[in-house]
Design brief:
seven-stranded mixed β-sheet, 0% helix, 49% strand, mainly beta, 123 residues
């Protein structure tokens, strides 16, 4: 079992930056950022496994950077050049073992979820 505690988020104008953090209570194999806007399905944003292999959603490639600090059981998302379409509730999620599949942007294999934090980008 692992608990995930998120921080960060906020409201910024288009072109601004935010940094999200997610701290787990123990080690994880895979950690991924998801987001869900009003009336939309949850979608994966960026994922990273415990050895640093990462995956990005095409729409955030080059603007967002995922990183993790395994010593702190922490996951981060640096979001630059934010756009209104990035507005959503952002969640971190974790898998404890690779037995459930690859570390990626599909929410189905994830067992543990943070509480979410709102990101709002104005035009």
């Amino acid at each position: 079992q692992v608990q995930l505690m998120q921080s960060g988020g906020g409201s910024v104008p288009a072109g601004g930056s935010l940094r999200l953090s997610c701290v787990g209570s123990g080690p994880t194999y895979c950690m991924t950022w998801f987001r869900q806007g009003p009336g939309k399905k949850r979608e994966g944003v960026a994922a990273m496994d415990s050895v640093g292999l990462n995956t990005y959603r095409d729409s955030v490639e080059g603007r967002f950077t995922i990183s993790r600090d395994n010593a702190k059981n922490a996951l981060y998302l640096q979001m630059n050049n934010l756009q209104p379409e990035d507005t959503a509730m952002y969640y971190c999620a974790a898998q404890l073992s690779r037995r459930r599949g690859t570390c990626g942007l599909d929410p189905a294999p994830f067992d543990y979820w943070g509480q979410g934090t709102q990101v709002t980008v104005s035009s």
